[in-house]
Design goal:
The complex is a heterotrimer. Chain A is built from 3 helices and 7 strands. Chain A is α/β, with parallel strands linked by helices. The longest helix of chain A has 12 residues. Chain B has one domain: DsrC protein, C-terminal domain (Arc Repressor Mutant, subunit A). Chain B has 5 helices and 2 strands; from the N terminus they run E-E-H-H-H-H-H. In chain B, a hairpin with a 2-residue loop joins strand 1 and strand 2. The longest helix of chain B has 17 residues. Chain B is globular. Chain C is of the alpha/beta class. Chain C is about 30% helix and about 20% strand. Chain C is globular and about 35 Å long. The chains are: A alpha/beta, B mainly alpha, C alpha/beta.
């Protein structure tokens, strides 16, 4: 049996009102050093973390939305976003920033990391994990 | 602790990372490097500039393996490896190069 | 393969319980802890939703959290089982993974 486990980080909170979103991202980056199979899930208010055009200078906190674009360098290449959560909030995939990764096994071709999936598919993704970390 | 550049003092934490990232200048980088017993040259600037560009784009300092992977891709395998990196920065690229580049200590650096 | 879900917020304050129930698979278990126990009460607006879900998942509440809040087990919806801390551990051990809904 392989030692690699499937980890899913579940993000359900908007970015700046609480510390959850930033903490989640930091744990993902630190955890990436352990070379596990890591994916992120965004549902409920968590989908707000990925919106474009975030500009935090006026509230005096760090804008960490650009950091999602670095995840590909850390071999985190799957960001599942729940379609129903987007729709309930009046958002579409076009409201999300573009996040790409380079596929090492495909001559470094650029591919999108964000995968918009249905609520039922999200439940399937959750059910196939070894470990789920909630934020 | 603090550094002095052109008669101006720049505050840093107890490990020598500057507090305000906007205080950074190439002159300050030379001063920090000196305090680490490092002489800045073209190769070291290449790494420091890469780190600053990475931070500017992603708001984080890259983990060491990410840094090495990226240098390997942009500058070739003779520069993108651990040995080369530790020759330039004996106490580690995270500890020294990030400090010289004026970045916070990298996330995941223990 | 099944999941133990824990919910620790009142459903009258956050969407966590509803979202949890929306992502459960048949055979999963939901354990209501801390303020989450209010989701197990009969007579509230949430009761029909929770009752309906009880048909496909097993529902539990943590009794010490009920007692702390002065909620008697007679107030619980039918079909919800009370567990103590040992029962909590047994539920964790029985399922393949645990997912917290914060």
């Amino acid at each position: 049996m392989s030692d690699v486990k499937k980890f899913l980080y579940v993000n359900r909170k908007a970015p700046y009102g609480t510390i959850y979103a930033l903490e989640s991202l930091e744990v993902v980056l630190i955890g990436a050093a352990f070379e596990q199979d890591v994916a992120l899930a965004f549902l409920d208010d968590g989908v707000f973390q990925l919106t474009k055009s975030q500009e935090t200078d006026g509230i005096g906190v760090k804008n960490f939305s650009p950091t999602f674009r670095a995840l590909g360098d850390y071999d985190v290449t799957r960001l599942y976003v729940e379609r129903e959560s987007l729709e309930e909030r009046g958002l579409t995939e076009d409201d999300l920033q573009e996040i790409m990764y380079e596929d090492e096994d495909d001559d470094w071709a650029e591919k999108p990391s964000i995968r918009v999936i249905s609520r039922a598919e999200m439940a399937d993704v959750m059910a196939e994990q070894d470990v789920i970390l909630s934020f | 602790m603090e550094y002095t550049v052109d008669g101006k003092t720049v505050p840093a934490d107890e490990e020598g990372y500057i507090i305000n990232l906007s205080d950074w200048s190439p002159e300050l980088a030379e001063v920090i490097a000196k305090s680490e017993d490092i002489e800045m040259d073209e190769e070291r600037w290449e790494v420091v500039n890469f780190l600053r560009d990475y931070y500017d784009e992603y708001q984080i300092a890259p983990a060491v393996r990410v840094l090495i992977k990226a240098l390997k891709k942009s500058m070739g395998p003779e520069k993108g490896n651990n040995k080369y990196m530790y020759e330039l920065f004996p106490y580690g690229p995270a500890k020294q190069a990030c400090k010289i580049a004026g970045l916070p200590k990298p996330t995941g650096c223990v | 393969m099944s999941t133990l879900h824990t919910v620790n917020k009142s459903p009258y304050m956050t969407q966590s319980l509803v979202s949890c129930l929306n992502h459960c698979k048949d055979g999963d278990a939901v354990l209501m802890i801390e303020d989450g126990i209010y989701g197990g009460l009969a007579g509230g607006q949430m009761a029909p939703i929770v009752e309906e879900m009880g048909k496909k998942v097993s529902l539990y509440v943590l009794m010490p959290d009920m007692a702390a809040r002065g909620v008697d087990s007679s107030r619980l919806l039918e079909g919800i089982e009370g567990v103590d801390y040992t029962g909590f551990v047994e539920l964790v051990a029985k399922h393949d993974r645990t997912q917290a809904w914060l």
